[in-house]
Each structure stands twice: as structure tokens, then as C-alpha cells.
Amino acid sequence: MKASELMAPTLREVSADAETISQQLLLRGGFVRRVMSGVYTYLPLGWRVVRKIEAIVRREMDRAGAQEIMLPILQPAEVWRETGRWDVYGEEMFRLKDRRNRDLCLGPTHEELITDLARREIKSYRQLPVMLYQVQNKYRDELRPRAGLIRGREFIMKDLYSFDRDTAGLEVSYRKMLEAYQRVFTSCGLTFRVVEADPGAIGGHRSHEVVALVDSGEAEVAYCDRCSYAANLETATSGSTPKSWPGVNQGGKPKLVSTPGVKSIEEVSDFLGVPSWQTVKTLLFIADGEPVAALVRGDRHVSEFKLRRVLGAATLAMASDQETERLVRTKPGYLGPVGLNGIKVIADAEVPALRSVVVGANQEGFHLVNVDPGEDFIWDEVADIRIVQAGDPCPQCGGPLATVRGIEVGHLFQLGTKYTSALGAVYTDEAGREQLLVMGSYGIGIGRTMAAVVEQHHDANGIIWPVNLAPFQVVIVTTNQRAQAQVEIAKELYFRLSKLGWEVVWDDRDERAGIKFADADLIGYPIRVTVGKKVEQGQVDIKLRSEKSDTSWSWESAVGYIDGLLQDSLKALSS
Ligand code: ATP
Ligand code: MG
User: Fold this and answer.
1) What is the C-alpha to C-alpha distance for residues 562 and 575, in angstroms, rounded to an integer?
2) Which residues contact 484 (CB under 8 A, 6 or more apart)?
3) Are 423 and 79 in contact (CB under 8 A)?
4) pLDDT of the chain along its 575 residues, tens only?
5) Which residues, in sequence order, are CB contacts of 123 under 8 Å at separation 6+?
6) Rounded to the nearest whole angstrom, what is the distance from the C-alpha of residue 143 to the centroid of ligand 2?
7) What are 95's strand-pairing partners?
8) Could you give the CA distance from residue 427 to residue 383 in angstroms, rounded to a whole number?
9) Which atom of ligand 1 is nearest the CA belonging to 449?
10) DSSP class per residue in 361-428
11) What is the C-alpha separation between 472 and 139, in angstroms, rounded?
């Protein structure tokens, strides 16, 4: 391909609304263009990368024994009503009506449609197990579309669904997918962790996320280097870190102390000279319309996610100042667990062991000191509701946990019979009995993966594509388009490299060499061949995008050298 004919509109300027490196570089490199919030066009370079990621995904899904299909994006409301998700999905679902006023939606995911297909087509155990997948657009009216391709409202997803006879079968399918996912993301050149995620409302079922490690990512992961433990921070657990108060336990009754204007835990611990972990923080929430007080050690944070799960609540939000005043007749800074009548109390597992703590007095301007959990206040339930912090002991081996941020690029769910029971998707077993199909679902965000690769592979000048994802592997730069010798050698190199199967761009534009180099770096071709003045002596310069300097080669030997380099890089990425 000649650069003069390639639609790769590079930009020098960083777009003001580009929040992340990947968004900036994909816009500047001419890979994508924004149409509206969360909706993007892929230009030729971007689409080539997408197709390569998709090809890796298809290869691995096929290798795992799955079959590709295509379900419709346009979906009838009825099947969503059958599972109850027509209402649950809320505003994230794009809804529309047809000319007969029937409710439709644009598929945000496809559990409903695939299960509908399964209940019609799968009759017998002989048809099981089966894994079906597709690669297509999904539609979600995300509350906060973000960071370009990372959180779009229209985005490309590979979604795969497994159907098995029983949970043992599901385990097998699930393990196959876990392995396939590791191969996919290894092939994409990503550094990632497979982490435990929310197992969902249905007990016993597992879920994992694949998180590409990126500092600016939205996902937070706790992991242990000593063992294999890794979990999404939302669900991560830790052993407790007992802390004992070096001060004197005065025993006896709680004492009211005046703490005017002192509200936050930091202020309280400064003012009273106690460590923050010697206080108990009380937070008031409204869960499904009912007030709930959550207690954690002062140096901890409540995981709203865990709290909601403990309560089995559909909705959970922090009580507003007005709600707090109405319910407890105090300001949030002075909330405490003593005398919280009529309000359900959930204490984090670390709280009961504490002694002689400081708590809010439920009176503006006052705290209570010398309070003993279990004696001076009680709770309805003790549960793990705290967010794990770096340094906490690993729940598996006790080693110190670390935390990292990342981008969730893939998600695996054991759904069990959640959808098949809702839709009555059954098969007949060997004994002639009807059994519910046991299901799993497995997603990969294709655009999000592309963005994650850019987040991990770039420098100040632009993208550094892994060889197998690069839109083209080689760019040939002629520094002076009017020098006949350069043009001839460039054409010959182009011809020979293409014949070996490599994808090559010849930058034949009538531009200064500096501009061509800058574009080559920005776009991120893995190898640049410069055909400049030295070509008179038969020499060209070869530079790897990942390295700083060129090396000179005779143009004939350059072909073999480049071929070897690319082959080696591909091998390193193969899974
Ligand atoms: P998130 O927690 O980031 O919203 P999710 O749990 O809603 O993700 P799934 O429904 O499991 O995501 O979707 C499977 C995969 O699709 C995700 O792992 C991610 O790679 C991708 N994905 C999900 N939402 C988006 C989006 N809005 N834009 C781009 N990719 C997405
Ligand atoms: Mg989501």
C-alpha cells in the first residue's frame, strides 16, 4: 500500500477531550474518529487492527471447539420480559419501537437470545456440550462513556455461550475458556491478570475477569505474589489485621467527649490522639428503601459492593445529610453505633475484636471514647464488608497482598441455570428425563482490547504495535521522493517483502523525511526501512519501532534480516 493512497489522517494536535493515552494516540494516528459520545468510526488502520484481534479470538475460540454464529442485534422485548431483565437493565438498554408499536431493543448482551435459540434447538444430551460465539456490535447507553474505545456505547464484543448437561460439564467448558482467554491475551502482547470477580447472586458459581494492567484503568485488583490469589478489589477478601491499642484500656463505661467541628476520622484521631484504627466508622446507607448502618475500623473503607451483597439488596446508596438527620438526628460526621435504635447494623468482621474505641456520639460536636464493641453496642450481622488494602494478608497464604489497576478486557461467568430455568431451556438425558441446560457466558471487548494494547505499548512518539496486531508490519520511507534511485530500491524492497507475506506501506508522499518519520512512529509500524542518500552505495537503514537507533544494511540483505526479525517476533507472541 502506498501511503499517498492510504486513508491515515494523522494529527499533530492532541484532542482536548481525549482522556487517555490510547484515545489520544488512536485519534492522532488516524485509527479512529469520534462520531458522538461513546460512538466511534474505525478508519482503515484501526479496522485492520480490529480484524487482527478478531482473528486471534476466532482462532482460539475455534481451537476450543466453539462454533461461530450471528445473532441479531435487534431483539424483541418478549424474551427479555421472560427473564425479567427488560426492567432490570434500566437505562443502559437502548430501546425502540417498530411501526406496530412493538417494544424492541438493541442487544446489550445476548444471554436471552442464545437461550431462546437453545430451548428451540437443543433437545437431547447427544447435542451437548455445545459452545456458540459471535463477534458483533453491542449497545449500552453507558452512564459515563469514557476513554474512547474503553467504554463505548456501541462496541465490538466477542460473546460466547456454553451449554452443558450439568455443572461438571460447565466446569470443563469454563476451564477451556479460561485457557483460551490466556492464549488470546498473551497473543495480543498484553500483560494481564486473571482475577476472581463477583460470583453473582447465585451461590457457588464462579466468575473471572481478565484485567490488562494499566495504571489509568478503572478496575482495581488485589493479588498475592506468594500464591496465585488475585481478585477484583470489589470482591477481594483478606485475612484480618488485628491491631492492639498500645494505650491503656480504661475499662468501664463509654465517656462523652466534646469534639467541636471534628468530623472526619483523621480529624478525630488527631484531636484525640488515637490511631485511626482505634476508631469505628459508622456509615449510613439506604438499601432498597431501608436504612442500614455499616461499621468498619476507622482506617478502612466500606465496600458498597460487598455490603449490597450481604444485604441481598437491589439498590444501595449512601444516606444524604437530610436522611441522616431525619433518621439519627445528627450530622454524618457524628454518627456512631451506640443507641442506633431501629436501624439494621452490619459490622465488618474486624470490628468485634476491637476494644476501647472512639465512635461518633450521634450528637453534633461529640464523640464517645472507651467504647467496647459487643458490650456498648451490638449489631445484626458480622460480615466482610471492607475494601482490601495493599499489605493486608492474603486470604489463601497470608502473604502480603498488593493492588494494581487495570482494564477489564475479558469476563467469564458461570451462569448455571439462571437463564435456562427462566426460559425453560431443557434437554432430555439418557434416562429420558428433562434436565435444565447448564450455561456459561464469556465476553471479550475487541475495541477495549485494542485500547489496552496501546496503553501498554507506546512511547512519547506514538504506538508500538506488537507485530501480529500492527496494521502493517513494515513502512518504507523514501526521504526524497524525487531521487530515482530511492524510488527504485523502495519499490524493489516493497515487492520482495510483500512476496514474503508481510504487509508493507511505502511512504511515497512528497513530504519531508521528518514528517514521514513522525508519522511512522505515531502509527507504530514495527519496522521502518529508510531509503535515503546512502542508497547510492546500496545501503538502507533499518529501525525497530521499539528501539532508538537504526542499523545499516545492504538493501538486498535487508529483506532477509527483516523477515527474520518479524518471524522471531511472531514466534514470541504465539501462544
Ligand atoms: P464493565 O464492568 O467494564 O462495565 P461489564 O462487566 O459490563 O464491563 P461484560 O458485560 O462482562 O462487561 O462484557 C464483556 C466484555 O465486553 C468486557 O470484559 C469488556 O471487555 C467489554 N465491554 C463491556 N462494556 C464495554 C463498553 N461499554 N465498551 C467497550 N467494551 C466493553
Ligand atoms: Mg458494564
Assistant:
1) 22
2) none
3) yes
4) 999 999 999 998 877 777 899 999 999 999 999 999 999 999 999 999 999 999 999 999 999 999 999 999 999 999 999 999 999 889 999 999 999 999 999 999 999 999 999 999 999 999 999 999 999 999 999 988 877 899 999 999 999 999 999 999 999 999 999 999 999 999 999 999 999 887 655 456 889 999 999 998 989 999 998 998 988 888 888 887 666 655 545 667 888 898 888 888 888 888 888 888 889 999 999 999 999 999 999 999 999 989 998 999 888 999 999 998 888 888 888 899 998 888 999 999 999 988 889 999 988 899 999 899 999 999 999 999 999 999 999 988 999 999 999 999 999 999 999 999 999 999 999 999 999 999 999 999 999 999 999 999 999 999 999 999 999 999 999 999 999 999 999 999 999 999 999 999 999 999 999 999 999 999 999 999 999 999 999 999 999 999 999 999 999 999 999 999 999 999 988 76
5) 427, 428
6) 9
7) 105
8) 40
9) 20
10) -SSTTEEEEEE-BTTTB--SEEE--BPP-TTSBPTTT-PBEEEEEEEEEEEEEEEETHHHHHHT-EEE
11) 30
The CA 256 to ligand 2 mean position distance, Å, reads 46
Give ligand 1 pocket residues (Cβ under 6 A). Answer: 109, 140, 142, 151-152, 155, 157, 408-411, 443-445, 447-448
CA pair distance 189, 457, nearest whole angstrom: 9
Partnered with residue 211 across adjacent β-strands are 193, 408
Question: Which three three-digit cell numbers place residue 302?
Answer: 466500606
Cα of 445 vs centre of ligand 1, distance in Å, is 6
Q: Which residue, among 154, 136, 139, 143, has the nearest Cα to 38 in the 3D structure?
A: 154
**Contacts (Cβ under 8 Å, ≥6 apart) of 414:** 170, 174, 205, 206, 207, 440
Q: What is the spatial distance between Cα 478 and Cα 383, in angstroms, rounded to a whole number?
A: 67
Q: Which three cell numbers stand for residue 243?
A: 491491631
Cell of 39: 460512538
Assigned C-alpha cell, 439:
450455561
What separation in Å is there between the alpha carbon of 141 and the centre of ligand 2? 10
Q: How far apart are CA 32 and CA 187, in angstroms?
A: 23
Q: Quickly tell me which residue has 459490622 as its cell.
A: 347
Helix axis angle, 555-573 relative to 484-499, nearest 10°?
40
d(CA 348, CA 488): 74
pTM: 0.88
What 3 state SS string does 231-284 have? Answer: EECCCCCCCCCCCCCCCCCCCCCCEEEECCCCCCHHHHHHHHCCCHHHEEEEEE
Segment (H or E) for 36: strand 32-36
User: Which residue lies with its CA nearest to atom 11 of ligand 1?
Assistant: 411
Q: Which residues contact 571 (CB under 8 A, 6 or more apart)?
A: none
Compute the distance between CA of residue 141 and CA of residue 157 in angstroms, rounded to an integer: 15
